[in-house]
Specification:
CATH class of the largest domain: Mainly Beta
Largest sheet: 4 strands, antiparallel
Helix content: 25-40%
Low-confidence stretches: 1-6, 23-30
Strand order of the largest sheet: 3-4-7-8
Number of helices: 8
Oligomer: single chain
Shape: elongated
Number of domains: 2
Structural class: alpha+beta
CATH architecture of the largest domain: 3-layer Sandwich
CATH topology of the largest domain: Rieske Iron-sulfur Protein
Length: 374
């Protein structure tokens, strides 16, 4: 078919931008005879401003100010009561109860929750009854604002500060600041739940002279002849397990529960046997191994990941977390990765029964290198 057959003059005028609304009998954008500059919806305006009771009655204004201050003071008192309840009521299942709940949890939740609630109510009442009560209109504009707009915004902020009465209403200001300051007390008190400060415990482990090195899975003590060249064994101190004492008696484990978990995280080691000719001992540690058997902390000195990826041919130990690499033939020196220092070495010796035992504890802290930083 020929395109001329479907030629439409009206469509051609529309394409050329020469439409005349009268040709169609209506205007799609506005009603006939309407003002093209008029707003699509008439501005209804704002209703006449009605002053609040506190705006016209000084007595009611002072009463509202006292109410807000009392809310802030009550919030401060509840913060103090939170601290009192923390020390008075014993937490836990065996502790005192209150309406079917643990007295500790109930009292702590109620006092802290009500303290924050009263501060919020006080702030709302202050805004509703005492701060400036004027309708504001702000039209959207592009960014950045002009210098005149920025100056206008600063002027509005200063005006709002004056109208809020923050500087003039000292009773409200001081009571609010006091309640907010006291609200920090519960946070300080709750730090006690983090437990006692570690002191120098992070710098020591349970290893000491004579503690046997045992397989961390079977709990069997290790002898030098049990290890082949190139073999790596994950190990722990015997004190973590029930074991046989020097006189043949059964010695129970010295640690259990949470304490066991904490100490395991510091005392885990790897024991490796290499040819003595391959090892270049660190100065002063020439006697820390046993015929090519050396022992290092299993905790990476980067962020504390456990290490046991052993490249038998290269004698390198890799951390699986961030690929820090340690050369066990050279004092566990870092050859690659983010670790900042070598793995701490545990000095070894053989006891009277032929078992591998520690000569002492580590001479430096195990784990991440926090202690090196000033």
């Amino acid at each position: 078919m020929s395109p001329d057959k479907f030629h439409d003059p009206d469509f051609e005028r529309h394409k050329a931008g020469k439409d005349n609304p009268e040709d169609y009998g209506h205007d799609l954008d506005r009603a006939p005879d309407s003002d093209p500059d008029a707003e699509p919806i008439p501005n209804p305006g704002l209703p006449e401003h009605t002053p609040r009771p506190t705006d016209v009655d000084e007595r009611l204004e002072r009463r509202a100010e006292r109410q807000v201050a009392m809310l802030f003071l009550a919030a401060g008192l509840l913060s103090v009561l939170f601290c009192v309840a923390y020390f008075v009521f014993e937490p836990g299942i065996e502790g005192e109860t209150f309406v079917g709940m643990g007295a500790s949890n109930a009292s702590l939740g109620l006092t802290l929750g009500l303290a924050m609630l009263l501060i919020g109510i006080g702030a709302i009442q202050w805004a509703r009854k005492l701060m400036g009560d004027h309708e504001l209109i702000e039209y959207r504009h592009g960014a950045p604002s002009s210098a005149e707009d920025r100056e206008e915004a600063l002027a509005a902020f200063r005006a709002g500060s004056r109208e809020s009465g923050f500087g003039r209403r000292k009773l409200i200001r001081n009571s609010m600041l006091g309640s907010l300051a006291l609200l920090g007390l519960p946070a300080v008190v709750l730090l006690r739940d983090l437990g006692p400060l570690p002191g120098r415990k992070l710098e020591h482990t349970v290893w000491k002279r004579g503690v046997r090195v045992v397989n961390d899975v079977t709990a069997l003590p290790l002898r030098p002849e049990d290890l082949r060249i190139g073999q790596l064994v994950n190990a722990e101190p015997a004190s973590f397990f029930e074991h046989e004492g020097p006189d043949g008696e059964t010695v129970p484990a010295e640690y259990e529960g949470t304490e066991l978990i904490i100490e395991k995280g510091k005392a885990a080691v790897i024991v490796v046997r290499m040819s003595p000719e391959e090892i270049t001992p660190v100065s002063g540690r020439e006697n820390w191994g046993i015929d090519g058997i050396v022992c290092y902390s299993k905790i990476c000195t980067h962020v504390g990941c456990p290490i046991s990826l052993w490249e038998q041919q290269t004698r390198l130990l890799l951390c699986p977390c961030h690929q820090s690499t340690f050369d066990l033939t050279d004092g566990a020196r870092v050859t690659f990765g983010p670790a900042a220092r070598a793995l701490p070495q545990l000095p070894l010796m053989v006891d009277e029964e032929g078992y591998i035992v520690a000569m002492s504890d580590f001479e430096e802290p195990v784990g991440p290198s926090y202690w090196e930083r000033g």
